[in-house]
Amino acid sequence: MRFNGRLIPALFVLSLLVPTVVFAWPWSTDMMNQPSVKPQETYKGKIFSFPARSIPTIGVLTTVANRDEAKSLQNPIAVTEGSIKIGKRLFIIYCSACHGLSGKADSPVSPKIGAIDLTTEYVQKDLTEGWLFGTITFGGAIMPAYGISGEGGGSNDLSVEERWHVVNYVRNQLAKQPVVASKADK
Ligand code: HEC
């Protein structure tokens, strides 16, 4: 057994490569090719219904079909510092371009597209939190939708929880303390 000294280390190195080869075999697609549905995904223009008896992880109905249905939704996310922080970050990314960093419709495009001031009593008191959630989810006449995807929908950018964080920020801090984008928010 002259070559034993080299054969055994060589076999050992080869054995380390086996998993790489196995994963590349055409039949090992495992969970790659399976039907899966994203929350509130649309199908033929309608929001996909969840299977019976399934509940969303935050325990509230999220399969509302339009803004009117969203109106009476209860906000399931407590107004905490953490929630407001996430909401603020998302607001800067998704809302400030049109509504302004301060929320007062003072961005360069605000007047051009008719984006409204979000610090007024109308948005802060008159509208329900559910309606705000619905506005973010389905958009408005001009405002884009952030919670639906597929035909006729927007980009499905914000998850249910994220949308409520934005609502928490808009309703609990925006009007009190205008946003100054800082490094910490990026
Ligand atoms: C592309 C520009 C644009 C962006 C981005 C945008 N909005 Fe709007 N928003 C508008 C316009 C325009 C209106 C008023 C007309 C309408 O309903 O489309 C509006 C209206 C609203 C209203 C009032 C709804 C009502 O019933 O009167 C709320 C609340 C609101 N936006 C919140 C948000 C929040 C929160 C975000 C970020 C997630 C956001 N908007 C992002 C353009 C925008």
List the helices and strands and how they pair.
Layout: H1 4-23, E1 42-43, E2 46-47, H2 67-70, H3 81-94, H4 96-99, H5 110-113, H6 121-126, H7 129-138, H8 160-174
Antiparallel strand pairs: 1-2
The protein binds heme C.
Small-molecule binders: heme C
Largest sheet geometry: 2 strands, antiparallel
CATH topology heading: Cytochrome Bc1 Complex, Chain D, domain 2
Give the helix proportion (percent range): 40-55%
Helices, by number, come to 8
The termini sit apart by: 63 Å
Q: Topology as H/E string? A: HEEHHHHHHH
Q: Rg from C-alpha positions?
A: 24 Å
Mean pLDDT: 81
Low-pLDDT segments, ≥5 res: 150-154
CATH class reads Mainly Alpha
CATH architecture: Orthogonal Bundle
CATH superfamily: Cytochrome c-like domain
What is the tally of beta strands? 2
Q: Classify the secondary structure makeup into a structural class.
A: mainly alpha
From the spread of the alpha carbons, the general shape counts as elongated
Strand order of the largest sheet: 1-2
Taken together, the total number of domains comes to 1
Question: In percent terms, what proportion of residues is strand?
Answer: under 5%
Provide a brief overview of the structure.
This protein has 186 residues and is mainly alpha-helical. It has helices at 4-23, 67-70, 81-94, 96-99, 110-113, 121-126, 129-138, 160-174, and strands spanning 42-43, 46-47. Helix 3 packs across helix 8 and helix 7 (129-138) packs across helix 8 (160-174).
